[in-house]
Amino acid sequence: MKVGILGATGYTGIELIRILSKHANAKITYLSSKHFESQLISEVYPGLSGFCDKILEGDDFKKAVAICDVIFSTLPHELTFEVGKMVIDAGKKLIDLGPAFRFDDFNFFKKWYGSNVEIEYDKYHKVYGLTELYREKVKNSQIVGNPGCYPTSVILALAPVLKNRVVVDKNIIIDSKSGVSGAGHEPKFSNLYSECNENTKPYKVAKHRHIPEIEQELSKIMEQDVKVVFTPHLVPMTRGILSTIYCNLESDITLEDVYDLYQEFYKNDYFIKILKPGKYPSTKSVAGSNFCQIGFEIDERTNTLIIISAIDNLMKGASGQAVQNMNLMFGLPENKGLDVIRIFP
Amino acid sequence: MKVGILGATGYTGIELIRILSKHANAKITYLSSKHFESQLISEVYPGLSGFCDKILEGDDFKKAVAICDVIFSTLPHELTFEVGKMVIDAGKKLIDLGPAFRFDDFNFFKKWYGSNVEIEYDKYHKVYGLTELYREKVKNSQIVGNPGCYPTSVILALAPVLKNRVVVDKNIIIDSKSGVSGAGHEPKFSNLYSECNENTKPYKVAKHRHIPEIEQELSKIMEQDVKVVFTPHLVPMTRGILSTIYCNLESDITLEDVYDLYQEFYKNDYFIKILKPGKYPSTKSVAGSNFCQIGFEIDERTNTLIIISAIDNLMKGASGQAVQNMNLMFGLPENKGLDVIRIFP
Amino acid sequence: MKVGILGATGYTGIELIRILSKHANAKITYLSSKHFESQLISEVYPGLSGFCDKILEGDDFKKAVAICDVIFSTLPHELTFEVGKMVIDAGKKLIDLGPAFRFDDFNFFKKWYGSNVEIEYDKYHKVYGLTELYREKVKNSQIVGNPGCYPTSVILALAPVLKNRVVVDKNIIIDSKSGVSGAGHEPKFSNLYSECNENTKPYKVAKHRHIPEIEQELSKIMEQDVKVVFTPHLVPMTRGILSTIYCNLESDITLEDVYDLYQEFYKNDYFIKILKPGKYPSTKSVAGSNFCQIGFEIDERTNTLIIISAIDNLMKGASGQAVQNMNLMFGLPENKGLDVIRIFP
Amino acid sequence: MKVGILGATGYTGIELIRILSKHANAKITYLSSKHFESQLISEVYPGLSGFCDKILEGDDFKKAVAICDVIFSTLPHELTFEVGKMVIDAGKKLIDLGPAFRFDDFNFFKKWYGSNVEIEYDKYHKVYGLTELYREKVKNSQIVGNPGCYPTSVILALAPVLKNRVVVDKNIIIDSKSGVSGAGHEPKFSNLYSECNENTKPYKVAKHRHIPEIEQELSKIMEQDVKVVFTPHLVPMTRGILSTIYCNLESDITLEDVYDLYQEFYKNDYFIKILKPGKYPSTKSVAGSNFCQIGFEIDERTNTLIIISAIDNLMKGASGQAVQNMNLMFGLPENKGLDVIRIFP
Questions:
Q1: Letter string b/e over residues D165-200, b meaning 16 or more CB atoms within 10 A of that residue's CB
Q2: Which of C260, C295, C257 minimizes the C-alpha distance to C275?
Q3: Fewest beta carbons within 10 Å, which of B253, C115, D34, D112?
Q4: Is D198 on the interface with B (CB under 8 A)?
């Protein structure tokens, strides 16, 4: 498989390169970068030297689509829509790490992203790429809208109990903590080391653009309209998302029952690790890997189920899941090139 | 004022020394340490050299009470009860940074702390030392049960809306994030640098011993039984607590109204900083200071009020508030020795 | 004293505000900022609210000089030279935190800083503001060239042994480690959290612009031409500089003798802390304070003296020392407003 | 190959498990742990679940040697000597990550490590396992004394210029900065998060036990007695060592010549990355990988060569190099199971 990465020098781009350089079936064929055009990727990131020494090209997306079998895009949505059209026309495949193809309803996308783009959204042959929920559709789609990092950590954590109606549809509170790499590679005041170190802070409270994505998917799982409260926080670490989710229990259920329910729900999912009662996820337990850890606790005093999930935001939350989807789209084992153990300590 | 600190070499102990060494009205007269007995405090912590060079004594608490006007204790509760009795008998004052004197109902304490101690709890002339709520009582008490770090951040954030019944008493969710100094000075695996760095993890989910303290106080404020869900997390920083609190709104209210309500509630409280709508607290904005920042957001989609508070766990969450209480007990201005600006960056 | 700060929103600027807001003899009268002009400083840095709520003005330096008794400048050197002239003409005082006034020989400055400015450098009534070495001159100067952060940590560490010719003038190796705040407040790729965290890296090896400043002063101390090797490194922390310095011993000397020599040399210097043999400095022991810790070891196997010094780069390495100089220039006790204990942990 | 790891739960032990669990030719057959005996390794470290779920056994080293082809030991040297004898007798192989087998002269070992052990040191068929220098001997040895983390970073950096006598043998200054994982997994005050975070500090100045190992090897390379000055520092990060090394140049040589010399010296060494003039190593560029980056600068003003090397202390500095040696001992490609790209960011 010849792969192209459009927008290769952001954190998700270089994570794709890290994974795909060692993927037995992939050959990195095209890399683009607006900021570092004409430089070697291994000059920009010396740690890639010997593994990937390609030139970063500019924005000749047509060429990229022509010479590659699959395109990964980290571009702004306006450009991704263009690339999407080229891919459809050329019978190639596209995995988009941005929001462009994550939605069922285009107006929903336009409202939350403040976009005026006019396209025939339904003509794109696409799927929401949360692999564990849409595995079969991913295999047969041309375009994958790869999920956001927060939605991945949240939807995987909630799917089993919503599907089985163990919890009620009201008062679902999601409190997520992310490492700073999730804020991207842009040089902004708020991303500076001295601003982030020794600092925990919420941002975009109840306004984050991952909310519509979360609600779209939870509503489909529960087959009714679900609304959530979502607060993202930045904590002083580079990688990792920990989501702590609070739901009202519908009925009496033990912690062991909940454990069994999750085990059953994810019994065929290699990358989902359900923790036994008494153990909780931590971001360090999944760092550098594509795994998602899920644990829980029942607060009997308030009849609340507390679900906790941990992922590496650049792996299962972005580039790892993108490659997981690529594997499916090309008939490969889902964990090909991704079967690595977390880094610890 | 002659002050003694029993258990002076833990993080709250040396923070007391840092504050009191520069307090115009206090004279550090007795320091005890089980682990470092007979050493100079400035040998154990060289940064104190020139500011406090006293010898660390052993456990002669009787002597401490005899020669001091006020005792700060960071001892285990069994020992603190003994010291409390000595203080009452001698007509001195005690500020306890542990849980021993925080409760109205001794059985409640015994249940949550698994204690078999038998004492006449009601004979201690004590008050729960959350200064902003109990200022007048603190002035006239012999013993202050200084609040826990999490409860300080939570009760201050919730008091105005519970008192004014702006929110309902159900579904109060508290998600707190603490720096690692909150886990204390003990050498344990879980506190090692390499275990905590790049790691965000929950602990004691729905089981933390600060829950009874929070519920006792919220129930008194609301004049009815209040239960909360509380999840503490460790995040990779040394100082700071950020609590994100979710409540269902009782009725229609604007963000501006909420802001006005908090401003009014805390209008005479020097150390409480209410942030304007659109601004959120961060731990770095209060680091090294005794301030508590409070901000909020309304999620209209779900009719949820989200309250966020930030404190320095060793200052307003422990030693700073202890000195704030000491000032009141001795008729001094509340912010004496505490009026310092946060360290930034 | 009315004080003005030109360039008030960088890290050294807000550190000056932090110190001067609580300085009994200073009144912050003028603040300028190119980036945040017309905003309240307490809007840009909410932690200053209640302590300093002044409007940030633009570049009306003439007004600043007219209404203030002393100006602190963090401006580029071209602008600082202009301000310097205004200050001389108006009979006011200037403390410059940049390199403009640190040099004896203007050509030396121009060469290392690649500057073409033409001014009558000798007409400025100035002094190199390393307080411990130039205390008397500082008292009587109109302009202070406040030392760089690295030079402060290095010159203080070397002065006693160079003055006493305990070490030879060759092979002086300086290996310095700095926190990231030393790289300033500019949003650059290299200062991003995700680039700096978990990363130790050298930069400007043997080329850093603090070299001429170090060599100028060491040469004056030793009364002969001294050259040094200097390598700065960035380590993942916000504040602090640790300099490890290696010199060949001239003759036999014991560690105790070295200790006595330093004690004697700095016997009247409040902010210098000489550590006993066997103890070494650490950045955390001086964080947030104006102290400089100095310790040493003799490697008898190689006849090498290893000197280690630690400062807070924003305090003794910049704004703290600037206020120390201001105190002297206005006849105040040197430690006025600066007598604070380090923050720990 | 059946492998056993004695002392499997320290940081180098679990790093071995991380590598060997994915090594196509290795089968983890025996794990021992004093502290966690009888527990599953995947209970102690949940991130290993699914990759390695073996029971941790006690100290039946005889059994370990009997059922394994190769033993990795992280035990204290007294125990390692016993295991070494068993291995020799049984015709098996041993890779020791401690100091026991790193020395040519047993008295030298005993002096620096304060040991009274009496053994026939010469009867052990052993080699110092710095792979790049002793590749052929490693292939044919039964016992490998795997190098210390600091010595690996230092000897690799100095070998080319000492061998070629580009630098003089005097005044070799080594200033190393290590992440905290190098201090091990023991719960000690000095390793606590709150003590290490925001702290850079030297330790064991001119006294570290890695000095004899460094000097033994440098002396052999240069064929004369070489002494060095060595100062290790702890910096606030988990992984990584950066060594900055200062030498006096013997004669005129350009930076390009130095670059060519290193390229030539290491032309057959997969894991050594020589950086072009103007680029410097950083710990983040090698994190999680087995690579060693080496860069340099010439300070013409002082005729000094500054060499900088970076490794991951747990990989090339310990467990990675141990597996590199294992590969050689069993006729496998040197980079088998180790050919991974650094984690970034």
A1: ebbebebbbbbbbbbbbbbebeeeeebbbbbbbbbb
A2: C295
A3: D34
A4: yes
Cross-chain residue pair C194–A188, CB shorter than 8 Å: no
Q: Examine residue A345 and say whether the peptide bond preceding it is cis (omega within 30 degrees of 0).
A: yes
Q: What is the pLDDT of residues D56-100, one digit of tens each?
A: 999 899 999 999 999 999 999 999 999 999 999 999 999 999 999
Cβ–Cβ contact D238 with C under 8 A = yes
- Residues 6 or more apart whose Cβ sits within 8 Å of residue A319: A12, A15, A16, A18, A19, A72, A97
Residues of A with catalytic function? 149
B239 touches chain A (CB under 8 A): yes
C-alpha torsion sign, points C60, C64, C66, C71: negative
State phi, psi for A16 to the nearest 5 degrees: -60, -45
- Is the distance from CB of D314 to CB of D239 less than 8 angstroms? yes
Two tokens, residue B155: 């009760």
* Dihedral angle, C-alpha A148, A150, A152, A156, nearest 10 °: -160
C149 is catalytic: yes
- Rg (C-alpha) for chain D, rounded Å, is 20
Amino acid at site C189? F
Taking residue C345's Cβ as centre, other Cβ atoms within 10 Å add up to 23
Q: Do C194 and A194 touch (CB under 8 A)?
A: no
Chain C CB within 8 Å of residue A188 CB: yes
Q: Enumerate the residues of chain D whose CB falls inside 8 A of the CB of residue B237.
A: 197
Contact present, A56 and A80 (Cβ < 8 Å): no
Per-run averaged pLDDT (10 residues), chain B, 345 residues: 97 98 98 96 93 95 98 97 97 98 96 93 95 98 98 98 95 98 92 97 97 98 97 98 97 95 98 96 98 98 97 98 98 97 96
Residue B39 Cα distances to B13, B43, B55, B114, angstroms: 15, 7, 6, 34
Contact call for residues B292 and B273 (beta carbons, < 8 A) = yes
The burial of B148, by beta-carbon neighbours within 10 Å (0-12 exposed, 13-18 middle, 19 or more buried), is given as buried
B89 backbone dihedrals φ, ψ, rounded to 5°? -60, -35
- Cis omega (within 30 of 0) for bond into B345: yes
SS3 call for C154: helix
Domains and CATH numbers, chain D: 2-124 (3.40.50.720), 150-313 (3.30.360.10)
Contact residues on chain D for A279, CB-CB shorter than 8 A: 46
Query: Which residues of chain D are within 8 Å of residue B188 when distances are taken between CB atoms?
Result: 187
pLDDT at position A99 is: 97
User: How far apart are the C-alpha atoms of C153 and C149, rounded to whole Å?
Assistant: 7
